[in-house]
Design goal:
With about 550 residues, the protein is of the alpha+beta class. It folds into three domains: about 25-105, Classic Zinc Finger (Double Stranded RNA Binding Domain), CATH 3.30.160; about 115-255; about 285-550, 6 Propeller (Neuraminidase), CATH 2.120.10.30. The chain has helices spanning about 35-40, 85-90, 100-210, 215-220, 225-230, 250-255, and strands spanning about 25, 30, 50, 75, 80-85, 100, 285-295, 300-305, 310-315, 320-325, 330-335, 345, 355, 360-365, 370-375, 380-385, 395-400, 405-410, 415-420, 420, 425, 435-440, 445-450, 455-460, 465-470, 480-485, 495, 500-505, 510-515, 525-530, 535-540, 545-550. Strand 28 (about 500-505) and strand 29 (about 510-515) form a beta hairpin.
Amino acid sequence: MDPNYDAQDVARCDLCKTAIAQNYCDFCHVNLCKPCIGEHISDEYDKHKIVPILQRKSTLIFPKCKTHQNRTCEYQCQDCDIFVCYDCAMSKQHKEHEYLKLEELFNKSKERIGKDKEELDRISPTYEEIAIELENQIANLDGEYEKLTTEMSKQREELHREIDNAINQMEEDIGEIKVKHHSILKEHLNEIKQVQSLMQKTLVSLNEIEESNEVSPTINYSSKVEEFRKLPLKSNVSMPKFIPKQVAREEVSNLIGKLIPLSTTLEERVFAAKKLNTLVRELLDEPEVLNAIKTGHEQQRSVACLNEEEIWTSSSKTADIKCFNIQGVLQKTIETKSRQNPADIAVDIDVVLLYSDWITRRVYKVNDNQTEEYIKLQGWIPYNLCVTSSGELLVIMCSEAEIQSKVVRYSGSTLKQTIQFDNGQPLYSGNKNIKYITENRNLDICVADWGAGAVVVVNQAGKLRFRYIGHPSPAKNEPFKPSGITTDSQSHILASDGGNHCIHILNADGKFLRYIDNCDLKSPCGLCVDSNDSLFVCEFFEGSVKKIKYLK
């Protein structure tokens, strides 16, 4: 098989249906393997045009002439604005007319189509960004309106609380008034009872005098009727009254607050084409190892470039995350919060270390030796990380039941996008097997899915672009199980193949370009490139990181 042909899209012979096609008939437009060429051209040998498959469809298919059945139209009559064959051009009907060759028109149109395609390729990501922005706004709509109703509920509770306090105060005042009212009436009653008691005593004394024959008490009797005839003053105590205040609806609304209604404005968008890398760097025929750093890690798994001079490394056996300079001298060591190995490490655009902790279900940020919680998950376990060109964070996570995997995009600690399905089918294998992630320069999201044996590439909107399942080669006997991935300034995708001790280099569309297999690599795993496109490769069982030059 031709190494320049896509491994994931092998062309089969259209005659025998089984063999790989190396050739193509540009007249009949069929794929052919070498054994089937003879059978195909057995009739009318001269009419067939057999070409290598990479040159297929190089022969133009001209339209048939409607006047001359056995002729094809290779010209356009400018006067009549129709396609004509050679015989038509020589006829009286088109005498002295001017013609254009269809091949020239075809080539010009192809150039225009190519430019339009290139322009649309630049414009398309902007529409995807707009769509993602709108999808995120829709996804966050319930949360924003919930915040709004929560604020109103707080105001309602506050007003209820103030009203309750005012009513409670009034109830206390009523209790005090009642006590005072009771005291006034009780005091008046006591005065009346005292007069009644005195009156009874007087009546008893009068009865005794009336029955007595003694002269002196009778003569000395002094009447008290006038005193008793003079009644005590009447105490008029009025009941307190509650007069409820009539509150108009407008006053209630003003008391609660004001709700600003929904407003919609249209703002003109201005397309700004993203600057693409214009420096073309070709692949070296023979990549070379520039340096090998011994990290002391068992099962060296991840590497992240801090800058051109320093790298962070981690393993699947220890809680230590180590920083080395390019000469291999240890600069600092960070221990994870859980004291277990990190799932992955990354460096953000502020040159700050991030790591995912599968034990605590968190992603942490380490700044000036201070570790702080960045993202906290529930029901999902964070694994591999990627910081995008815009500073967002992509996290591969697995469900706690280990049956689902997905990619989640965060802006800060805010969830913005979830990538999990393609037309209802899972994009990624469902267990916690190794899944490295990176973003390409065209904003594609590339995942090395060890469990699926594939590199899975989706566009910025999360739509599947292609799957790369390896490249057949007699020298590579083990199944393709990608265990690391990165991209470079040329939009190359580099995937490590630990079982075959090599690295696959693909273009941005998944076309296999070549291997890196001459650098004595042993079980390559995690990958990263620095700003100069130097490649850093973890050797899983060797506890080392190799720096490789592979671009001119």
